[in-house]
Amino acid sequence: MKSSTVYRIREVVKTLSTDAEATQKAVAEIEDTIQKDAEYNGYSNYETWLMSLNLDNEQPLNEMVMTISNAKDLDTYDKAQVLKERVEEMFYNDGLGVYRICDTWTERDFQEVDWCEVIESHLDESYESEDLDEDLDGAE
Fold this sequence. Notes:
Elements: H1 3-14, H2 20-38, H3 46-57, H4 59-69, H5 76-91, E1 92-93, E2 98-101, E3 103-105, H6 107-112, H7 115-121, H8 132-139
Helix pairs in contact: 1-2, 3-4, 3-7, 4-5, 4-8, 5-7
């Protein structure tokens, strides 16, 4: 746990009293602090945040993610599967058994990515993408 979280918890605990309502409010503040500490820049885990960051780092990768995320013909889960498969095709090194995208990713790291969350973070109503197959074929 980060030292800032521990500090915040200590501050909240100092305000605890015998009043049940005040105690309940303090516990809710502690839980909120812990939850915020557990997130990574708005993502549920480190691997998801890092994958999204890596995909945004290069224009062709960002365009691919935006095209898939904003496709009109798929739901979020199907978009996530398409994105995961595309990234696997592009970055898996069969000889080493790892993924190489900006840095080395193990199989476990890769499996921790919440692909639906990556898709949802790239939704943009102003992005014009109609047919996923046409858009991806044109991008290759």
